[in-house]
Amino acid sequence: MGARVRALLLALLLWPGAAGYNNPFDWTVQFGEVTSKPWFWNPWTYSNLYKVVDIIINPKYVRAFHDIALLRLDSSVSFNQYVQPICVLSSNSKFLHRPDCWVAGWGVLDENQTALPPPYSLREAQVTVLNNTRCNYLYSQYSFQSLFSEFSFCAGSEDGKVDTCSGDSGGPLVCDQDGLWYQVGIVSWGDGCGRPNRPGVYTNVSFFFHWIQMQMSRSALGPEPSRPLLLALLWAHRLLRTA
Ligand SMILES: *[C@@H]1O[C@H](CO)[C@@H](O)[C@H](O)[C@H]1NC(C)=O
Ligand SMILES: *[C@@H]1O[C@H](CO)[C@@H](O)[C@H](O)[C@H]1NC(C)=O
Ligand SMILES: *[C@@H]1O[C@H](CO)[C@@H](O)[C@H](O)[C@H]1NC(C)=O
């Protein structure tokens, strides 16, 4: 079990090495890139890079709980055909039980940590958001009292054939509705990867709607009103069994 490098929305985080996680100056955000290892000579490798000026960790964050942070960038993001903002709602009930939401990431392919092969393209998969009664039932062996409270939910396929894995944490769970995309979840953790009855666990973005709004309005008071804030995951966990 350990912390892993995270994706941020559909952006690429360039992990600088051994420094702490929460120093904004150690992080760079890139948009519109689909490979996690851009070719050195590719001109896109060095474009659309943004400096991070602030990392706002949810004050209630403890390991798998309230697993959300916001990044403030040093300038506004230029949108184009491939780089677009995403909507966040204060309720996600209309996405519950829908079988056609998507998760994306550059994580490993299975519990054996099989790495994503070249050209390291972003992978995506369709998952169903389950209700918390179901999630608590499926994870009841953990005897945590209500592991799934409103701040997180589980999603996947019950046969376990579709799931996120190590390295996907921080990535988005998105659903489309009438031509608009909504970010419903953030990949957080899971019990192994792709096991039957062990759907992946996601931060419930709707639960943090007001917190996100508050942070954004605070940043709007600053000298540069349009600085964007991005959702990100703080610590990424997968409870990988060793046996
Ligand atoms: C992981 O490796 C073990 C031992 O080599 C193998 O038996 C198992 O099928 C592999 N699992 C996956 C998901 O690839
Ligand atoms: C939760 O989902 C299960 C199926 O996954 C369903 O049987 C149950 O009725 C749902 N409960 C609520 C409260 O929606
Ligand atoms: C997510 O949070 C919202 C707002 O608190 C809540 O209404 C909803 O039931 C939660 N979703 C799940 C799947 O738990």
Layout of strands and helices, then pairs:
Blueprint (H helix, E strand, L loop, with lengths): L11 E2 L14 E3 L18 E9 L11 E5 L27 E5 L17 E7 L2 H7 L13 E5 L15 E6 L2 E10 L10 E5 L4 H12 L8 E4 L11
Antiparallel strand pairs: 1-2, 2-3, 3-4, 4-11, 5-6, 5-8, 6-7, 7-10, 8-9, 9-10
The chain binds 2-acetamido-2-deoxy-beta-D-glucopyranose (3 copies).
Structural overview:
This protein is mainly beta. It has a single domain (4-221), classed as Trypsin-like serine proteases (Thrombin, subunit H). The protein has 2 helices and 11 strands. The chain has helices spanning 132-138, 209-220; strands at residues 12-13, 28-30, 49-57, 69-73, 101-105, 123-129, 152-156, 172-177, 180-189, 200-204, 229-232. The strands form 2 sheets. A 6-stranded antiparallel beta barrel has the order 5-6-7-10-9-8. A hairpin with a 2-residue loop joins strand 8 (172-177) and strand 9. The longest helix has 12 residues, at 209-220. Mean pLDDT is 81; it is low at 1-19, 221-227 and 232-243. The structure holds 2-acetamido-2-deoxy-beta-D-glucopyranose (3 copies). The site of one 2-acetamido-2-deoxy-beta-D-glucopyranose has 4 residues, from helix 1. One of its GO terms (biological process) is proteolysis. Pfam families: Trypsin (PF00089). InterPro entries: Peptidase_S1_PA (IPR009003), Peptidase_S1_PA_chymotrypsin (IPR043504), Peptidase_S1A (IPR001314), Trypsin_dom (IPR001254), TRYPSIN_SER (IPR033116). This is Putative serine protease 41. Keywords: Disulfide bond, Glycoprotein, Hydrolase, Protease, Serine protease, Signal, Zymogen.
